[in-house]
Amino acid sequence: MGFKKQKFNPENDLGFGTKAVTKNQRLLNQDGSVNVKRKGLPFFDTSNNYHTLITISWTKFWLLVFTCYFTLNLIFASIYMAIGVDSLAGADGNTFWQHFWEAFFFSAQTLSTVGYGHMYPSGMMSSTVSAIESMIGLLAFALATGLLYGRFSRPSARISYSKNMLVAPYLDGQQAFMFRLANQRRSTLIDLQVEVNLSYLEEVDGKPIRRFLQLELERKRVSLLSLNWTVVHPIDDKSPLKDVSHADLVKAEATFAVLIKAFDDTFSQTVHSRTSYQYDEIVWGARFKPAFDRDESGAIVLDLSQISAYEKVELPVSVKQLN
Amino acid sequence: MGFKKQKFNPENDLGFGTKAVTKNQRLLNQDGSVNVKRKGLPFFDTSNNYHTLITISWTKFWLLVFTCYFTLNLIFASIYMAIGVDSLAGADGNTFWQHFWEAFFFSAQTLSTVGYGHMYPSGMMSSTVSAIESMIGLLAFALATGLLYGRFSRPSARISYSKNMLVAPYLDGQQAFMFRLANQRRSTLIDLQVEVNLSYLEEVDGKPIRRFLQLELERKRVSLLSLNWTVVHPIDDKSPLKDVSHADLVKAEATFAVLIKAFDDTFSQTVHSRTSYQYDEIVWGARFKPAFDRDESGAIVLDLSQISAYEKVELPVSVKQLN
Amino acid sequence: MGFKKQKFNPENDLGFGTKAVTKNQRLLNQDGSVNVKRKGLPFFDTSNNYHTLITISWTKFWLLVFTCYFTLNLIFASIYMAIGVDSLAGADGNTFWQHFWEAFFFSAQTLSTVGYGHMYPSGMMSSTVSAIESMIGLLAFALATGLLYGRFSRPSARISYSKNMLVAPYLDGQQAFMFRLANQRRSTLIDLQVEVNLSYLEEVDGKPIRRFLQLELERKRVSLLSLNWTVVHPIDDKSPLKDVSHADLVKAEATFAVLIKAFDDTFSQTVHSRTSYQYDEIVWGARFKPAFDRDESGAIVLDLSQISAYEKVELPVSVKQLN
Amino acid sequence: MGFKKQKFNPENDLGFGTKAVTKNQRLLNQDGSVNVKRKGLPFFDTSNNYHTLITISWTKFWLLVFTCYFTLNLIFASIYMAIGVDSLAGADGNTFWQHFWEAFFFSAQTLSTVGYGHMYPSGMMSSTVSAIESMIGLLAFALATGLLYGRFSRPSARISYSKNMLVAPYLDGQQAFMFRLANQRRSTLIDLQVEVNLSYLEEVDGKPIRRFLQLELERKRVSLLSLNWTVVHPIDDKSPLKDVSHADLVKAEATFAVLIKAFDDTFSQTVHSRTSYQYDEIVWGARFKPAFDRDESGAIVLDLSQISAYEKVELPVSVKQLN
């Protein structure tokens, strides 16, 4: 029977607009990133240095730190060479390149403020340059170490989501859309809130328009995420998914966007997580197997590898099940 | 027909009071800063050192850091000179100024803790001074580097707003005030909320009084700002702008103050942005051109240079349009 | 006529309990601190080191840093002396005390990692000690500099409150309790919220019981605190202060506790401020003089020295005014 | 009479699920930690380095820092040895181990950037290694010191809870469940909110099912926690604990989970605290003794050692009291 016509509610579209997206293109990727490219502004206006440096990969970050250190030393070595061979007392090289590398390593010892002292600046010029260099070294390394620690301590949630969304039996002979999640980390997540948005295509005057609906949930919030949590959208009379079959979901390219917000007790900050389920990730007629059990001592054990585990069950015939 | 008389609602005046401001003077500037000067307190009571140091321009910041470094070295050089020429072993200058600069560079090497060691303190007095100086150096550079990183990593939103506010056709033959915005940065803005306040002059007993009204919006919140977002105030029966013409807005010196709040996923913090639209920045009878499109691969591309792009359209005659 | 009997609402008592406080003893001081002593737990359980170190006076903080530096050096100097005179190469003292001070300054040069090198550890023992000392130095100075920067950048609001609370004429021949506030700093305060709680004594069975009431305000929130803001509690039929005279306030030892919360745009954090007004700080029959004006160029100028300025006015006879 | 059958409200179960836990096993421990083990993911996926390093004990933290420092020095000493005995000028050992320890201490002096200079790198190879080592030293110590300060300044609440929950006389001849809390620290807690969840076993078809209920409180929030606060659940007609006896609580293994949230004025951040009361920690027929008093000067003194102090009282016969 397909989707019921919905009253247009602009609060629900997640800011994506109603323009249809081509087949097999998600707006929200499974890892929570957004599927949008940007252009029209110079690189430096769209990026923020801090944003970039805090989010690039560790490999790139280390490469960048190393390159900056190397380049700064090259520059200062050149300056010392320009001032003259005698500007560094204690240097005993004979060739140009020997002198250059001595200046280079003197620069490294100054930038890092290790200052062994077997070479030292001699004369006003090189003394001034090395005084400035040690100041620059302190400031530059402060940026590098600040970023290092900032990257290391950056608040983030790592939530394990079940691979599939299930259409499972629910209370009183009803069915419900369900997915499951658990905190992958050992930290405690407090006051966790979830929002599930359904997007699907609707034909309006022969043209596909993307519609967005926020789904009602059995429960939108847990005070404490200690075990796993099964998020449930019951297919009751109020549900826009009442009488919607698997084929309808495929045809309408239905996608469920999941937005999660919680307070992490370790970071003492609010963290967010996002994921999405597409029509082909929905299993009709299945229910999750328990993901926690008791060990010999009677203690509860949560098995994170079982978050996605489900078993097939028979749905009542009233549920259109076409896969 | 002008503005309808409004019931006075003190919750709406943004804290500016009802006193009229002279022509062409905005209360809230387009860059979000507030148009108010302050006096009556000594400089040091109104300023907060941290506030100042975190918000001054980079040029001023670097100048300040450099000046402090130079001044501290001058002070300590003078102290070493006062203690005596022999207090620094390894110094081999002959004139007063040669000694002074040696003391100056020794101080720089101590402040930055580079400590080459070709000069070193000799005797109780200079040893004590240099021990204190190296402590001061560590603490002072910690402040400087803390501020440097604080400035660098300071959370801020950079929102692109459309240059103009439009009066555009809306649903069911209505019109609406609209402006558009997008996140200039690549970071993800979550749970973005917007508030639009209209301020205008009303004649009460022949004296102009400034009135403030919070405008109803089609939608006040998006879960995720991934593309652009068009903020819409529909001109319906409840709108205070029903039957208000362009001439009315000019006469009443109408200004729309826009306040935005969102959670930035990279900074993991709440960020704010503000702007304003004045009567002469409103275009009657226009609509925004799409700012995003699809590239060859079918991916969505947001063109930030097109945020302000609009095209002229005919408004129904019922809309008083006098420009 | 005194205070009307109020329905008991436990949400209002600010957590102070109903036990009466003796005369002239405020629960909340004018500077926002709470007037309660604590005992019953060992010092170290009630204090938090970080709490203490971030809130002690600057004088105490500097004294503490200096004392720790001095003490650490004393300890390590003693260790080097215990290892033996020859453990530090380059030391050339002759007497015990000369050796001791050389060890002391070597320790200072190691702790601060300045390491001139005219003295250096010689032998396993002193090399090990100095390797550990430099590590300790780095960690200890990191704590000191972290605290220094933490103190420096600690978010805090500095609000100027009017010295007095006024009973002033209000709309439609009514009166209202009013006080005024402004942001002392140049930063922008966003989304400022205020809460005013009245506490007073009521005789129950001959024993004074402290009652707490949250007062209704003309307005509880401003989007942006740009000028001053006059907080108003109108004395209307719903007000518990209807028909209450100055003598009633004195007898009941009435105190108004003011709690303020705002988002500071510079710190990017929520800040709080508190103050209180006691019965003897209330002026009956007065109104605030404007605290802002226009300069020659037409710009608004806020005069922070005029926040408390008021002028006497005649109140209608219906207001019981006995002072 | 036991627990009334409750309408199932999924918002209340704290995320623990309805599966019964074995006797004497709390879901939420008294110190606020959660009683759940986790498995099924490799160690590194469940842990977050930052999480781990910020929460391990101080002993482990110091051991780790020391071990890393020692290991890094061992590694670099080996590298210098591999380059050759002559790579470090100023080293004068004769045996392999003498050379090795010289290399080791040279490494320590480079890592910590103390750089005395009696030994210094000679030649391209060792100069390069020491330049890299000093860079690594700066970065590694930045991580260590960042963690040290992060651990030290980590926001946390330290709330004193009363040892027992009491069933005490309340207004109008009613009874109420009560517990008491106070801020153990001298900091000010603002806008403190409390949530109490009752969990108990219910027999459904002969199988025990764990039920969760959020209890109504006399008051859920205080603006300012300045003294102690008694949290009260009145046993009125709406209460699920109406007509529940002590024996019922024991049989149903009733546990009260307490979740607290507040803003700490010193940390300028939101802090959380949790605890729980089990059926055997409930005292029927008792009331708390006052925990604060006045000293000679009339000032209020809060005695933190008296938070748990109670005295026995007679409950009306209508309360089933079986202990």
Account of the 3D structure:
The structure is a homotetramer of 323-residue chains. With 323 residues, chain A is an alpha+beta fold. The first copy, chain A, folds into two domains: 45-152, Helix Hairpins; 156-312, G protein-activated inward rectifier potassium channel 1 (Immunoglobulin-like, Sandwich). Helices cover 27% and strands 30% of the residues of chain A. Chain A has six helices and 17 strands. In chain A, strands 4, 5, 6, 10 and 13 form a five-stranded mixed sheet that branches. In chain A, strand 11 and strand 12 (269-278) form a beta hairpin. Residues 319-323 of chain A have low confidence and may be disordered. Chains in contact: A-B, A-C, A-D, B-C, B-D, C-D. At the C-D interface, strand 1, helix 2, strand 3, helix 5 and strand 12 of C face helix 3, helix 4, helix 5, strand 7 and strand 9 of D.
Present the secondary structure layout:
Four copies of one chain form a homotetramer.
Chain A: E1 36-39, H1 43-46, H2 49-55, H3 58-83, E2 88-89, H4 96-111, E3 120-121, H5 124-152, E4 159-161, E5 165-169, E6 175-183, E7 189-204, E8 207-214, E9 221-225, E10 228-234, H6 246-251, E11 255-264, E12 269-278, E13 282-284, E14 286-288, E15 292-294, E16 300-303, E17 310-312
Helix pairs in contact in A: 2-5, 3-4, 3-5
Amount of beta strand of chain A: 25-35%
User: What is the CATH architecture annotation of the largest domain in chain A?
Assistant: Sandwich
Class of secondary structure makeup of chain A: alpha+beta
Low-pLDDT stretches of chain A: 319-323
Number of domains of chain A: 2
Q: What helical percentage do the residues of chain A reach?
A: 25-40%
Oligomer designation: homotetramer
Radius of gyration of chain A: 30 Å
- How many E-type strands of chain A? 17
Please report the number of helical segments of chain A.
Answer: 6
Distance N to C terminus of chain A: 16 Å
CATH topology of the largest domain in chain A: Immunoglobulin-like
Q: Write the element-wise H/E pattern of chain A from the N-terminal end onward.
A: EHHHEHEHEEEEEEEHEEEEEEE
Largest interface, counted by CB within 8 Å of the partner chain's CB? C-D, 69 and 63 residues
Specify the CATH class of the largest domain in chain A: Mainly Beta
Shape of chain A: elongated
| Overall average pLDDT of chain A | 82
